[in-house]
């Protein structure tokens, strides 16, 4: 089968597409013919050996797939021909066939394309966890998201109002990304240059209730300043490169919180959590209440370009590879 291979830790430019052996048949797993695979920021880190998980090359990256069931264990609820999305674990998703654990495999609504389905799980479930459980988003609150034209950003804008937000504010790095944030559902969009003053003006000086930050870096301190009293800054990642530090005296001034949202760490210690998330999100997708993502789609042969676009922060929305 064809699969993406990281053969050396020299960055996205060294990514190849090669013929490799199919994964061994395992009757306890759901075997899926992969139609599309999600690309995430950790995949870019893996190409340089910078992620906490450090497999030895050569290996196949990718942890989220959409496809058609080839075989499934009895009692799993799946049969050959079912459209599904799923999580592979740590890698092996960017390949024509993947084996999935039944508890990490989920029915894909007919209304959602394979490409969109491959872009659902990481981002939407992270945002669902970050806003709902860690950010304690309450009805009527205002949500701001950094990196709003990226995968986490567009998921936040698509989902925030279903989780109770009354208003969303998007922060983007360039004018070219404004349209992407608006299409995802932003009520207001501001540029990263001078964003704090713009947000203060938009909120009448009060600030926002919840900030979702996948960027980190030099925006972090201003994010604390942008919170309303009792506001929450939810840290999701550090695509900006630098990991910021918190001067805790700032938390006292307005009774604000800085909280981490490590979705993977949470679901690995809370069995059944991902299934409970999908049980809430799937009906929204099926009805159209939650719009499907509009990913940036690359063919498998352009895997290096797809991963590179994330590393360079050029990607708009979720990045997905199509295999069929």
Task: Describe the overall structure.
- The chain has 324 residues and is α/β, with parallel strands linked by helices.
- The chain has 2 domains: 2-120 and 292-322, Quinone Oxidoreductase, Chain A, domain 1; 123-264, Rossmann fold.
- It has 11 helices and 15 strands.
- The protein has helices at residues 41-46, 114-118, 121-134, 151-159, 178-184, 195-202, 220-225, 249-253, 263-269, 273-287, 303-311; strands spanning 2-6, 15-19, 30-39, 64-71, 83-87, 97-100, 105-107, 142-145, 167-172, 188-191, 208-213, 227-235, 257-260, 296-299, 319-322.
- The strands form 3 sheets. Strands 3, 4, 5, 6, 7, 14 and 15 form a 7-stranded mixed β-sheet that branches. It has a 6-stranded parallel β-sheet with strand order 10-9-8-11-12-13, with helices on both faces.
């Amino acid at each position: 089968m064809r699969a993406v291979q990281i053969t050396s830790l020299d960055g996205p430019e060294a990514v190849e597409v090669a013929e490799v052996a199919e994964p061994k048949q395992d009757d306890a797993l759901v075997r899926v013919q992969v139609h599309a695979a999600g690309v995430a920021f950790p995949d870019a880190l893996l190409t340089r050996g910078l992620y906490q998980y450090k497999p030895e090359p050569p290996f196949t990256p990718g942890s989220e797939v959409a496809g058609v069931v080839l075989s499934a264990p009895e009692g799993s609820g799946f049969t050959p021909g079912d459209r599904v999305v799923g999580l592979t674990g740590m890698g092996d998703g960017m390949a024509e066939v993947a084996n999935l654990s039944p508890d990490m495999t989920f029915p894909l609504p007919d209304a959602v394309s394979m490409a969109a389905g491959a872009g659902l799980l990481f981002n939407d479930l992270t945002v669902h966890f970050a806003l709902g459980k860690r950010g304690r988003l309450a009805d009527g609150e205002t949500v701001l998201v950094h990196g709003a034209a990226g995968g986490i950003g567009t998921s936040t804008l698509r989902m925030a109002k279903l989780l109770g937000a009354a208003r969303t504010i998007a922060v983007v790095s360039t004018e070219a990304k404004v349209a992407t944030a608006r299409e995802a559902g932003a009520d207001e969009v501001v540029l990263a240059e001078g964003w704090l003053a713009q947000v203060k003006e938009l909120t009448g000086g009060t600030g926002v209730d919840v900030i979702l930050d996948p960027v980190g870096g030099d925006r972090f301190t201003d994010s604390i300043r942008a919170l309303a009293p009792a506001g929450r800054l939810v840290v999701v990642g550090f695509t900006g490169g630098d990991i910021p530090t918190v001067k805790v005296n700032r938390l006292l001034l307005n009774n604000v919180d800085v909280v981490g949202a490590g979705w993977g760490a949470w679901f690995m210690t809370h069995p059944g959590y991902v299934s409970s998330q999908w049980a809430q999100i799937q009906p929204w997708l099926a009805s159209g209440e939650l719009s499907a993502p509009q990913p940036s789609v690359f063919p498998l042969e352009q895997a290096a370009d797809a991963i590179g676009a994330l590393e360079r922060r050029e990607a708009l929305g979720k990045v997905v590879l199509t295999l069929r």
